[in-house]
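SEVERITY: medium
COMPONENT: batch folding queue
REPORTER: lab tech (J.R.)

DESCRIPTION
The queue accepted two submissions in a row. Attaching both inputs and their returned structure tokens so the on-call engineer can compare them side by side.

ATTACHMENT 1
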Amino acid sequence: MDVTGRKLNEKTVVIVKDVLNMLVKTQAIPHEQMIEVLNLLKKKTTAVQSIIAERLITKKEAAETLGYRSTKTIDRMEKEGTIDRVQIGNGQVRFRQSDISRLMGVPC
């Protein structure tokens, strides 16, 4: 699997397609329902890939980008709900670059 998880997504799509084809062949579901599920899966996969591809930055980078000397302002903004954090494991926290850009008034 690569860093973005694309191979896992592609493998999942192949497995789901195989299962759906088997269900259609055994007449467990109509062909139209299979198409609908595949379309939903395609949309979901695209959404997951765009989330994975989004750049995450540290609290320090967020503060510097916004022109703050301290990360305490980022902590306050988080508590106020102005900015959301992303837990990435082991207690590490990151922030979406798009959220920081939005706060700066820069279109994403």
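ATTACHMENT 2
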Amino acid sequence: MYEEKLIHSTPKSVLFGAVVTDSLEQAADWEARLQKLPAVAGVESLSRFLREDSAHKLELVRQIKETLRPSGFPRPTRSLWTSRS
């Protein structure tokens, strides 16, 4: 019952995927590739926030990562996806 409320509470899908990259260039590449897939309804990327004044923003991201480290989220792995450069 709760899952039905969740599913019907938003116009967006409750199914999603996440991609972690090593650079802004890779992020832009993945963003473009994902947007072309017919099964993907939309792409939301953080890369647009890092394009300008990236040094300061990347430092903030590092600080956030350090703050959240104790939360216990597992480190992303590359076992499911590999970049085809």
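NOTES FROM REPORTER
The radius of gyration is 16 Å.
No errors were logged for either attachment.
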